[in-house]
Design goal:
The chain has 8 helices and no strands. The chain is mainly alpha-helical. Helix 4 packs across helix 6.
């Protein structure tokens, strides 16, 4: 315990900086993933069999292969054509990976909205895109908050795999500390503590957001 506390005090700045990079990587990748997920959700529910098939293939391939392989394939595959930094290679890999799951979340919440609402909007002369933007999507986004929150937390923890590319996030920081101090257990335990704090913080924020949405719904 003494070694843990001493190491925690000595390395707090380095781990705090790594935690900031972890949050930055997660935020960028999930921001892109939301855009990807929304696009493929619309393709998935499209009446076109071709577009729906493309979305289904993407989702099946991504969900059926390990994230670590996706990171390596993207990093070394794109590197043949475009030189990406470890940050952007990791962010894009995480975005593509999470985008498949988010696409299914959006598909489920969009299809959970009563079809009668879209039919009523169309009967009033409202174009499909406008009805989707003003009527369907706002309700779908509210319903998507809980599963999206879970996916965001998973994305935060999955960001540790980007350390394999040399990006100094929390996991790589713990590896470097363990190699320097020979305190393997203590180093990884400190990284685990930082991950736990981040997860608890984001869980708190998401719970507050869910409660606020419930209050707005009740007020409406």
């Amino acid at each position: 315990m003494e070694d843990f506390l001493n190491l925690l005090g000595e390395t707090w700045f380095g781990f705090l900086k790594a935690a900031g990079l972890t949050v930055q990587l997660t935020a960028v990748s999930l921001g892109i993933a939301i855009c990807i997920g929304l696009v493929f959700a619309f393709l998935r529910i499209s009446d076109s069999k071709v577009l729906s098939g493309i979305a289904k293939t993407y989702i099946t391939v991504i969900r059926g292969t390990p994230l670590i392989l996706q990171i390596m394939v993207l990093y070394f595959g794109i590197a043949k054509f475009i030189l990406l930094t470890d940050f952007w290679a990791g962010a894009l890999a995480l975005a593509i990976h999470n985008g498949a799951y988010i696409a299914e979340i959006f598909r489920g919440t969009i299809q959970s909205i009563d079809r009668g609402q879209m039919e009523a909007a169309r009967s009033l002369g409202m174009p499909y895109p406008l009805a989707m933007r003003r009527i369907i999507l706002p309700q779908a986004f509210k319903r998507a908050i809980p599963p999206l929150g879970n996916q965001f937390i998973i994305g935060l923890k999955d960001s540790s795999l980007v350390g394999l590319l040399g990006f100094r996030e929390l996991y790589l920081a713990s590896q470097s500390t363990a190699a320097r101090t020979f305190l393997q257990f203590e180093s990884y335990a400190i990284a685990g503590l930082y991950y736990l704090v981040l997860v608890l913080f984001f869980t708190f924020v998401l719970n507050k957001l869910e409660k606020r949405m419930d209050v707005e719904k009740a007020g409406g």
